[in-house]
Design a protein that fits this description.
Elements lengths: L1 H7 L9 E2 L5 E2 L2 H22 L3 H5 L6 H14 L4 H23 L4 H6 L13 H20 L9 H22 L19 H4 L11 E7 L8 H11 L8 E9 L4 H10 L16 H7 L3 E6 L8 H7 L4 E3 L1 H6 L4 E2 L5 E2 L4 H11 L4 E6 L23 H6 L1 H21 L7 E7 L8 H4 L6 E9 H5 L5
Parallel strand pairs: 3-9, 3-10, 5-6, 5-9
Antiparallel strand pairs: 1-2, 4-11, 7-8, 10-11
Membrane topology: Multi-pass membrane protein
Keywords: Cell membrane, Membrane, Transmembrane, Transmembrane helix
Pfam families: Sulfatase (PF00884)
Length: 471
């Protein structure tokens, strides 16, 4: 009876162990309860929240150690809340972890992801087995977490608190060690006063406007600068074809990049670092606006939705007089290319550009942002990525996503060269540039590309350079 009374008193819970007749002390009910509570806490707040990202982390994905710390802190706060409080905090934490992971993968701010989350239904994530597997794992973890959160996790002994902090720090250090080699290629969203440079400025693209020659600027989705010389030579060969040498002078170089695709657009079109969310009023110094004042008709082409990243709002503010998006291209005969971002096929766009230039009554500035090389690229016959080969045994076998990426670029380049190589193609200076490095989830693939620079190629029309009319 005295033992029962002692155990019922809170101050007795931290007392000496009770002997069970053997040489070992028997575990007290409090010790068992504390152990179970800690293990449940560990599962709910460290293991489960980080489990969906573990496969990519092991492949050397984006650094997540700040998020790991956040998980531990959230768990320590939640352990004394009621079930509703724990479940609400768990769901909010998981939502933030997913959004921040996507943002870091694609060099975007979390606010940018939130601004386009309503357009998720225009995407086709089920086209990617990686996305399907990730979504299934995430749903399983959410269900498991909400079930486990019904169990107590309010440990009180100092040693369990130290164990929780230690486990958090151990997982944090492991994530840092795995991701540190590719860390510089993630979260490149703020130049912090870096000197400005762009392909447009290096090539003197705006100065090529003579009132007679057309200008075509192409920003190629995910076209990064390969580290391997053979891969770089292959990339140059896509755009700098021998059959174009008689009509175009070919120059190439590299330029720094920061951020995601829209940051690359602002870099090349407006001549400064930044992003589209800062554009709230007309921008007279952006390239389309400058050329419009010089008598050029300014047109943009993009094969996806006009609302994606708010392009239908800010494109006119930087000077585009006409915008052509995916549905209009499809309505006028462009092919449909299935992918996670389904839209009109990039290989259809050069034909539209040629027809526009042929019928124009004034000089044209055309801007084309490609779509189909947006990662992840699925293996698909319609995309021309089925059974990908062509980069050699090393890259075809070890880096299938790189092979698919080069395949998309090759198809796009083939379609462009077919049009601009025609004898009757109107005189046009053409600048081709990447927006950012390809944001591969696998570190080995990511490290095949420069983490700071993207390539550009200028095709300068020889007749325009000589100041003579015609082609």
């Amino acid at each position: 009876m005295s033992l029962t009374i002692a155990l019922d008193r809170p101050d007795a819970l931290d007392g000496p162990d009770v002997l069970d007749g053997s040489d070992r002390p028997a575990a007290t009910p409090r010790r068992n309860t504390e152990t179970r509570a800690f293990l449940n806490w560990l599962a709910c707040w460290l293991v489960l929240p980080n489990l969906p990202f573990l496969p990519i982390t092991l492949m050397g994905g984006p650094p997540r150690y700040p998020e790991v710390v956040l998980c531990g802190l959230a768990g320590l706060i939640a352990r004394r809340l009621n079930y509703a409080g724990r479940a609400g905090l768990f769901l909010a934490l998981m939502a933030y972890l997913v959004i921040s992971f996507i943002a870091r993968m694609f060099n975007m701010a979390v606010t940018m992801i939130l601004s386009v989350i309503g357009l998720v239904f225009d995407m086709n994530p089920q086209a990617s087995i990686e996305y399907v597997a990730g979504a299934a794992l995430l749903l399983l973890i959410l269900g498991t977490g909400l079930w486990l959160l019904r169990q107590p996790s309010d440990f009180r002994r100092p040693r369990w608190l130290f164990a929780a902090v230690g486990a958090t720090l151990l997982l944090t250090g492991g994530d840092y060690a795995i991701s540190k080699d590719a860390m510089g290629s993630y979260a490149r969203t703020d130049p912090h006063g870096a000197p400005f440079s762009s392909a447009s400025s290096q090539a003197g693209f705006a100065a090529l406007a003579d009132g007679k020659t057309n200008l075509l600027l192409i920003v190629v989705e995910a076209m990064g600068e390969p580290r391997d010389p053979a891969l770089r030579a292959r990339l140059d060969a896509f755009w700098m074809r021998p059959e174009l040498a008689g009509r175009y002078e070919m120059i190439h170089g590299t330029t720094p990049y920061f951020g995601s695709t829209t940051s690359g657009e602002i870099r090349e079109l407006c001549g400064h670092w930044g992003n589209y969310d800062r554009i709230r009023a007309p921008q007279p110094d952006c390239l389309p606006a400058l050329l419009a004042r010089q008598g050029y008709r300014t047109t943009s082409y993009h094969a996806f939705e006009p609302e994606f990243f708010d392009r239908s709002r800010w494109y006119p503010l930087i000077g585009f007089q006409r915008m052509v998006f995916g549905q209009e291209l499809l309505d006028h005969g462009a092919g449909l290319c299935p992918n996670v971002f389904p839209g009109a096929c990039d290989r259809s766009v050069p034909g539209f550009i040629r027809r526009q230039l042929e019928t124009a009554k004034q000089p044209q500035f055309i801007y084309w942002l490609t779509l189909n090389s947006h990662l992840p690229i699925v293996e698909n016959k319609a995309l021309g990525t089925e059974h990908c080969e062509g980069l050699g045994a090393k890259f075809d076998g070890d880096f299938p996503m790189i092979c698919r990426l080069f395949s998309i670029w090759g198809h796009t380049a083939d379609a462009l060269v077919k049009e601009i190589g025609r004898p009757d193609f109107p005189p046009t200076d053409i600048l081709i540039v990447g927006d950012h490095m390809p944001p591969f989830t696998q570190q080995r693939s990511r490290l095949q590309f420069d983490a700071e620079r993207v390539p550009w190629i200028l095709l300068r029309h020889r007749a325009a350079k000589a100041g003579t009319p015609g082609g």
